[in-house]
Amino acid sequence: MSKANLLSGMQPSADSLHLGNYLGALNNWVAMQEEFNAYYMIADLHAITVPQDPKQLLANTRRTAAQYIAAGIDPNKSTLFIQSQVPAHAQLAWVLNCITGFGEASRMTQFKDKSQKADSDSASVGLFTYPVLQAADILLYQPKKVPVGEDQRQHLELTRDLAMRFNSRFGETFTIPEAHILKETAKIYDLQNPTAKMSKSNEPKGTINIMDDSSVTVKKIKGSVTDTDSEIRFDAENKAGVSNLLGIYSAVSGKSVKDLEAAFAGKGYGDLKTEVADAVIAVIEPIRQRATELLENTDELDSLLASGSARANELAEATLASVYDKIGLIPRS
Ligand code: TYM
What EC class is this (predicted)? Predict the structure, then answer.
């Protein structure tokens, strides 16, 4: 039997992915590429929904691709591609925009958060229709699963609603995709503000970056916020900082939180931070090194991405052609 399809992506909106991107998504992508026919993209068109410096965007797109590969995405097993190199994404997004309610799009919490930060005059229409472009990204590849972190759940719900709406209005066209969210790593929190998710838009001190030097990572973890109590136990409500450290430690080491709690009985927060820092570095340092090597040859990286994009185009164009046909557009030839 042929493998089911899978799709996911990240925005190249910073010069490094952070630990939340890695544990919430990328690490699962690596595991899932064996079982699925996986499509992994770099969502550069999503990145421009907020202002980007063109030179920086170009560099960050390559840096993101290098980190995917360094983390274990194998371009021979998975189709690794750049969103803007597959025109069908923008084309299907337009069709989906036309079946999305204005109120429905207005309810997307990520838009509300980001547009509040940007203030309503500078928030773009692109930011408003961001989730619809995301739905197009997904539906073009007929995936069964979409591995993401918890913050993407609402966008996945919209994607499913749009797919069902299209299918019922125009006939069976899209597979209805499911979000694949691993409970343990669904949300990694900020080291300085452990009730907010780790994010590239937060203060750098609270975010562990894959491409940071190890000494910087150690410093950030040692300086993370804990509490005035001294007990090492998982209690997200009352001990958010310590619980986040335990969650991170568990995710990078594969040890259960329960075992970690037992191992740290009688020890202090300093011990916890030292061990977490060592365990995090053991995972991210090899990724940083490999990504740095890959970035030394951008021609090779670009051609690898171009061949992934060519492969992605085949399926994306076939889906788009079927959509255009169903809604009554005359074929080009
Ligand atoms: P982005 O770049 O903001 O996030 C990429 C992935 O990282 C996950 N993530 C986290 N997981 C756990 N803890 C955190 N603190 C954390 N921060 C981020 C996100 O859930 C995501 O899986 N809209 C998408 C990009 C996208 C996409 C798609 C994803 C565009 N098209 C199609 C799936 C399918 C996003 O927010 O990326």
Answer: ligase
Residues 175 and 232 occupy one common structural domain: no
Q: How far is the centre of ligand 1, averaged over its atoms, from the C-alpha of 10 (Å)?
A: 6
Quote the CA–CA distance of 45 and 85 in Å, as a whole number. Answer: 10
Whether residue 16 lies inside any domain: the answer is: yes
Q: Does 152 sit in the ligand 1 pocket, CB within 6 Å?
A: yes
- My answer on whether 309 and 162 are in the same domain is yes
Distance CA 248, CA 233 (A): 13
Could you give the angle at the alpha carbon of 82 between the alpha carbons of 77 and 86, nearest 5°? 105
pLDDT band at 120 (very low <50, low <70, confident <90, very high): low
Catalytic residue set: 114, 197, 200
* Ligand 1 pocket residue status of 25, Cβ below 6 Å: yes
Domain count, the chain: 2
What range does the domain containing 148 cover?
5-185+298-327
Q: Whose CA is nearest to atom 29 of ligand 1?
A: 9
**Residue labelled with tokens 């040890």:** 255
The pLDDT value recorded for residue 301 is 98
CA 6 to chain centroid, in Å, comes to 14
Q: Are 58 and 26 contacting, i.e. CB atoms less than 8 angstroms apart?
A: no
User: What's the pLDDT score for residue 116?
Assistant: 81
Predicted local confidence at residue 1, as pLDDT: 73
Residue 309 Cβ inside 6 Å of ligand 1? The answer reads no
Best residue for ligand 1 mutational test, from 21, 114, 178 (most atoms within 8 Å of Cβ): 21
Model confidence at 163, pLDDT cuts 50, 70, 90, reads very high
pTM (predicted TM-score)? 0.96
Closest CA to 68 of 277, 294, 279, 285: 294
Q: Measured from the CB, is residue 42 less than 6 Å from ligand 1?
A: no
Instruction: Pick from 152, 184, 252 the residue to mutate for probing ligand 1's pocket: most ligand atoms within 8 Å of its CB.
Output: 152
- Does 172 share its domain with 221? no
- Predicted confidence band of residue 239 (pLDDT cuts 50, 70, 90): very high
The answer on pLDDT for 248 being more than 90 is yes
- In a shared domain, residues 23 and 71: yes
Q: What is the mean pLDDT of residues 70-95?
A: 98
